[in-house]
Amino acid sequence: MINNILKWRETMMISLTRYLAYRSSFILIVLAPSIVAFFIKYHLWLSIYNDHPTGQINGYDLHEMISYHVWALIISLIAHGHSSMDLAMEIRHGKISSYLIYPFNFWEFHTAAFLAFEMIQIVTALITIGIVSMIGAIDLPSLQLLCLGFAYCMLVSFFWFTLQFLAGLCAFWLEDTWTLRVLAQIIVIFLSGSIIPLEFFPSWLKEILDYTPFPFMTYYPIKLFMGESIPWVGGILILSIWTTVIMGLNGLIWRKGIRTYTAAGM
């Protein structure tokens, strides 16, 4: 048991060192896209509200809409930053052969690396919250809601990790999984309420989405941070079910993929 804990700790420390060794690359790949996307949405909604005489659109005034998208930025930093690019490259280049002889299996290694990545993202999100609250872009919730929101986002982040892991495992059969990763990201961004709040969606579509993990990945965490009452217990249940299903698929695809693996990239 102690040896297993030490393996997880050492793997996380190695991953932390690797992520922080190339800070410019980390900023450009992980932080810059979220920040650029936020400023695009900010100027888009600013233009929309400037042309809207009532100052209210579907129950949102300009400050509430900007606050909504600031929280969307924070949630994207916590929960949507992980990528399966390294995983796909390791499979395609034949580098997973070394994992097959490690006393730490492939899934555990990448989960430990994900947890290390998540530690950096949480610190980044906390710094972002401090900055945007100081300039008045958001109203901070109570400490209890803030902690609950972060815990909720950790579950979302783990779901995103398992989804990205699934895309990465497709490298056993595909030369490049970039298209799959981008497609998954586009679907999640649109259907989770990251671009526009779900109040703007048709009611029938919103009812369907409530049975999927998408609204619980961005829209409901935003509402939780904004202090509104949401079905967060149901969200945890739905996310947990979907995460379990995808983990099962990951195990199945790994077993099938490893049978066809030839280490041809080595």
Structure at a glance:
With 266 residues, the protein is mainly alpha-helical. The chain is 70% helix and 0% strand. The protein contains ten helices and no strands.
Report on this structure.
With 266 residues, the protein is mainly α. The chain has 10 helices and no strands. It has helices spanning 2-21, 23-50, 62-79, 85-92, 106-134, 143-169, 178-191, 203-209, 219-225, 232-260. The longest helix has 29 residues, at 106-134. The mean pLDDT is 84.
Estimated share of beta-strand residues? under 5%
Structural class: mainly alpha
Radius of gyration: 20 Å
Poorly predicted tracts of residues: none
N-to-C CA distance: 34 Å
- Strand runs, count: 0
Total count of helical runs of at least 4 residues: 10
For the residues shown, what is the average pLDDT? 84
Order of helices and strands: HHHHHHHHHH
Described by strand count, sense and barrel closure, the largest sheet is:
none
Overall, the morphology is: globular
Helical residues, percent: over 70%
Keywords:
10 helices
Detail the topology: elements first, then pairings.
Blueprint: H1 2-21, H2 23-50, H3 62-79, H4 85-92, H5 106-134, H6 143-169, H7 178-191, H8 203-209, H9 219-225, H10 232-260
Helix pairs in contact: 1-5, 2-3, 3-5, 3-9, 4-6, 5-6, 6-9, 6-10
